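Course assignment 3, question 2. Fill in each field.
Student: A.L.
Task: Predict the tertiary structure for the chain below.
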Amino acid sequence: MSKFKKKKDGGLAPINTASLPDIVFMLLFFFMVATVMREDTLMIQNALPVADQIEKLDKKNPVSYIYMGKPSENYKKFGNEARIQLNDKFADISEVAGFIATERAALREELIPYLTVSLKVDKDANMGIVGDVKQELRKVNALKINYTTGSGDALTNMK
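Answer field:
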C-alpha cells in the first residue's frame, strides 16, 4: 500500500447558482421599467402631413396629445365630420379645458409650465376644428403648442 493516494480528477467544479435569482429579478425589474405601454387607441384617421423643417421635442418635457380627424372605419357610426379624440374617447370642444386641467393635475408642480400640447391633425381635417381647439387652449393658458408632422417634402401635402 502506498502512503499517498492519487487524487482522482473530478472534472469541473459545479456552477454556483446562488446569484441566479438576483439576476433574474434584476432583469425583470429592468424590463418592467423600460417597457413603454400603448398610450392611446387611435379612433380617427390620422395621416399626418409632412414637412421638411421639423424638430424633435425634448423627452424630458411632458407632452399631452390631442388627435383630430375623421373617425376611422371601425368608428363610422360617429359620423364623417372631423372629431377630436382625447385619450381613448371622442370629445367636444368644451371638454378640451377639462382635459388640460387633468393633465396638469397629473404632473408635478415644477413641470406644469413645461407642458406641451401636441396636436396630431389629419392632413384632410378641416382647419375650423383646429382653430376651435386652439381657442380653448388659449382660454386655459396652454400656450405651448406643437403640430406633429411626418418628415418629407411639404409639397406632397397638396396632392
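Instructor remarks: The mean pLDDT is 87. The first helix runs from residue 20 to 34.
Grade: pending
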